[in-house]
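Reopening closed ticket. The problem is back. First fold of the pair:
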Amino acid sequence: MEIRVLRYFLTVVQEGSITQAAKALHVTQPTLSRQLMELEEELGQQLFIRGSRRISLTEEGLLLRQRAEEILSLIDKTTTEFSAMDDASIRGEVRIGCGEGEPIRFIARTLTAMQRSYPFIQPHFYSGNAPDVLDKLDKGLTDFAVVFGPLDLTQYHYLRLPGIHRWGLLMRKDSPLSQKAVIEPQDLLSIPLIYSAQAWEHNEFSGWLGVPVEQLHIVAIYNLFYNASLLVQEGLGYATSFDNLAPTGPDSPLCHRPFHPPLQAIPYLLWKKSHRFSKASRIFLERIRKDLTAISLDT
């Protein structure tokens, strides 16, 4: 399986048409069609459903799309790292998978200061919940991951980042529970919940709730907070979320109420124990370590 053919395949997927993809790739349509047929023969699977106007992917095609994106991302990352090795000015990418939260502000400050000395180092951010960003880290597609504990960190090196997020409920200000100062476990048993995918996959609320999560009325599961906040605004339900993610000031229709007893999440910067850093990533890690020594992590 050639890298060139994988790029052809992804271009066809993006364009939705062999004709348009051939124009974008500057190859003839018969040449591109032949390459795709040979790819299907090599894999022994049909990848496309060929319609009269557009083509779509079979289940096997969807799997190849995911794998091709991962393979090409890793190849591009490797090429960038090697091209930087002999450059007089250090260049390269720092790839960071991250959840949503205030620790990104700390990382942004480190990157801002770093780019004054290394203007050709470019950060790439990939947003997602903990399972998403850890999957990319484990596959070598990112250099670092910003996640919120508690998590099993035994297979990673890590640094504790500043700040603590507190779990609670995001709701409309006209919701009955908005009159409460804190949210207790029994409050969750009879309301429509928009549930965090991270909390779902890691079963983070089971001990706090005192009952199986399956007893909750979960109407939706989300992995990025912005979409969840829109669902709350439109009245679908209450969203389990960290504090300080959504605007809750006087002009906002939303408010956030913390859980009681408190349920906290500590942010960490992770990297694989076996990971070999590029020069750019090594510089970033050194800067983060230096910046962390200058602050207190007690809160």
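Second fold of the pair, where the issue appears:
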Amino acid sequence: NFLLLFLFIFAAFGIVSWQVVGILFIVTLFLALHPLPGNDSEVKRWMCRSKIVQLLYMYFSYRIVYTQQAKSDAKNQSPWLGVGVPHGAMPFANVLSTPAIESYLYFPKTNGSYPSFVGAPADIVFRTPFLRYLTLFKMCSVDKKSLIKELGKGNNVGLVGDGIAGIFQCNSKNEVVALKNRKGLAKLALQTGRPVIPCYSFGNTAAFTCVYDPFGIMEWLSRKAQASLFLYGGPLFLPIPHRVNITLGVGNMIQVTKNENPTQEEIDTVHQKILQEVEGVFNLYKNSLG
């Protein structure tokens, strides 16, 4: 998208031809809008177990760590909401958890069907060339209606708790989680009566080096556009992630009592439990995982 913007500018000054810009514009539209398989397709089942995914696991030495109780709860108490933080430039720990959980955590049959695990990225991911191919893993929109629909099917849903805010908080020196004032997940859990599994994503913030202005302008624009507007890179600042260890630490399940109209106090209570469990997961595994 930024490339097209620069090409339009170059074309206006006669540096490149409008024919080149037109061709690239059509190709971009095709890559952004052509249909992709649905979550129930064999393509997505194959993708979750494909050689591509195995290579990504190896590149990042990918692991999911958990206690036996956390695994048992996740396996036997579908459907639930999973939340992982921090986001980083790209939440690799969260993205890779979708095929990993779908392929290796065999959920028992519930109400006559087997639950799936579905990731919930930002809506812009579904319309961004190349990036949208991540939705070849099982994915749904992060909007409330879509999340409730998947939970209603009996599926488990995972999302990134700090979103765009988490991108602009990450740096190479400190792990920062922008979750303190984001209480939508707690409210949704109460409204649906579904438990929450807090997780911590180790390595997300180290996979890419992020560059953004210190004045918050790019963050403000990102919020307005509902898209991440910043620069990032890996080795030699190429769009290839650093080869770092990526691990998803799974916390204890938080049970809630269904209330379609929760009070602010109830929301705050559940939200505080989520924050405490995220911190607990980090403290539990930080020394062993570095």
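Update: turned out to be a display glitch only; the data is intact. Residues 1-34 form one domain. The longest strand covers residues 196-202. Please close again.
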